[in-house]
Design goal:
Blueprint: H1 3-22, E1 29-31, H2 33-39, E2 48-52, H3 56-65, E3 69-70, E4 80-83, E5 86-93, E6 109-114, E7 117-121, H4 124-137, H5 145-156, H6 162-171
Parallel strand pairs: 2-5
Antiparallel strand pairs: 1-2, 3-4, 4-5, 6-7
């Protein structure tokens, strides 16, 4: 994983850790492409960090305390945050419950990066289902990278619950057969 990206992840881990402490235990969930980057140790690239949190105002306060600013770059959607130390990366808060409330949050995956820095991901099955759903929503072959991501996560996961995986893929609108080579 690129050293600059790793430092950005560690900073985000500090924010997430502080959020969990300040919120009384609520989890900040890292989803999307950045979760794939972490699981695959940088085999894929993502230019942003998508997060799901229960208390957006509290999370934003903690972001600002760590030097984050609201996006103000020309040509950007201005829906997220940026950090001056990492101008090529964006941080966005995704609204609504994690995967529409369909995730088994007890199966979360936590990465302890260093003391006081932790990133929490949804279960691998949910990330795989998300990648396949994103592929299904696109125009097929031109976005086959999403299927490659799902397959790599599937191969790297130490434990996968096949029933949960199939149910999550179908619930998200994906095709489980795409995991087969």
């Amino acid at each position: 994983m690129d050293e600059n990206y790793l430092k950005a992840v560690e900073l985000l881990g500090e924010v997430c850790y502080k959020y969990t402490q300040a919120s009384g235990g609520d989890t900040a969930w890292l989803v999307g492409g950045a979760s794939v980057v972490i699981i695959t140790d940088g085999q894929f690239h993502s230019g942003d960090f998508d997060l799901v949190v229960g208390n957006q105002a509290l999370f934003e306060t903690i972001l600002r305390a760590h030097g984050f600013q609201e996006e103000r770059c020309p040509g950007m959607l201005h829906i997220g945050f940026m950090h001056p130390g990492y101008p090529d990366l964006g941080w966005q808060l995704v609204t609504g419950p994690l995967f529409g409330g369909k995730t088994d949050t007890s199966r979360r995956v936590a990465f302890h990066l260093k003391e006081g820095s932790e990133i929490t991901l949804p279960p691998y099955e949910d990330i795989i289902a998300d990648r396949l759903a994103q592929f299904a929503a696109q125009d097929g072959k031109s976005h086959f990278e999403l299927v490659k991501q799902a397959r790599m996560i599937f191969s790297l996961a130490k434990t996968i619950d096949p029933s949960y995986l199939a149910a999550r893929i179908r619930a998200e609108g994906g095709d489980p057969s795409l995991l087969e080579d």
